[in-house]
Design brief:
Pfam families: CinA, CinA_KH, MoCF_biosynth. The chain has 413 residues and is an alpha/beta fold. It has 15 helices and 17 strands.
Length: 413
Amino acid sequence: MKAEIITIGTELLLGQIVDTNSQWIGQKLAEIGIDLYYKVAVGDNKERILDTLDHSFKRADIIITTGGLGPTQDDLTREAIADALDLNLVKNEDLLIEIKNYFDKMGYQMANNNLKQAYLPQGALPINNSEGTAPGILLDKDGKIIISMPGVPIEMKTMMQETIIPYLKDKYLSNQIIKSRVIKTCGIGESSLEEIIDDILEDQSNPTIAPLASQGEVKLRLTAKANSEKEALELINSKENELKERIGEYIYGYNDDTLEKVIARLLSEKGLTIATAESCTGGLIGDRLTSIPGSSNYFERGVISYSNQAKIELLNVKEDTLQEHGAVSSQTAKEMAQGIRELANTDIAIATTGIAGPGGGSLEKPVGLVYMAIADKEGIESYEYKFNGSRNRVKYLTSQMILNLLRKKLLCK
């Protein structure tokens, strides 16, 4: 089945609000195996909404709209749907009672313009709105499913979870099980990853594979349809094993895993302790590591040492090292890692130093240049990376990369 989302509201086109509804709906549709082919935004103009609906009817089986179901003059969705399908708007007396009861419970007098919310295109069913006054619209006509919901996220999400997802499952997927698994990778870009598994991605039969790039990592969502959960999982496992043969070294976790969660498990399982010394990341790594409950069992301390003096006083970095190689150097990163490990008396320590920008760079040491180090009883290793982007992006990518390097080292212990 092919779905399309239409978000309605001039405020979306003006950039006054961000459309998070489409993203969320798209995720929910993917979870039940419904393909989303188009997302369209249109302003509060009846003719343009009609034109958009006309295009959607031609290319989609399921049309989902958000917005334009309120009581004001610029709320035009119900009228546009009725006109597009040549249907009359019919007052639903039960809806009118529900809307009046809502206002009574809130202690407000219902305005006359709220009456329009009790009207539905002929043949449509109302979608209960437990979070507001605007009921949704569910219409099955001529082989098309039209679903209209308010633009307010909490109202839309409640309708999707309580009514729409169960309805779509029952209508299209009653005899099938849909299972998904997200494989998470780090240390390789999206284009490089796709190049390695290009032939596997071309086979989009069952299960399907969807690459999902995000900051500092690439995800692969495997979705299988089958007659039983066991069969679906077997399909996913088979495809995952095929992927592991190509990209196993980059896979760090699954579904809701994060690098900090994976590292927390590894440190706990191996009974190891850790300390951090951060310059360019400003405590971000320590924050991520300590965001996991129980982190006090393995995280001993963290030092944020931006100035050279702080590196000398708190981490025992040699003044000669800073003068000869500079604060942003592999030598300084190594001494930071070794210094915090000795001071904290931990099994392992990590350090970062670099130029997050936007200023402070040079031809020799440009913005985005970062040095990292990992120290343990076996020695110290340093790593050099060059990242692009904003200050926050450089900081996050640095934290992501050092945590991934730490993960790999812990796997070998």
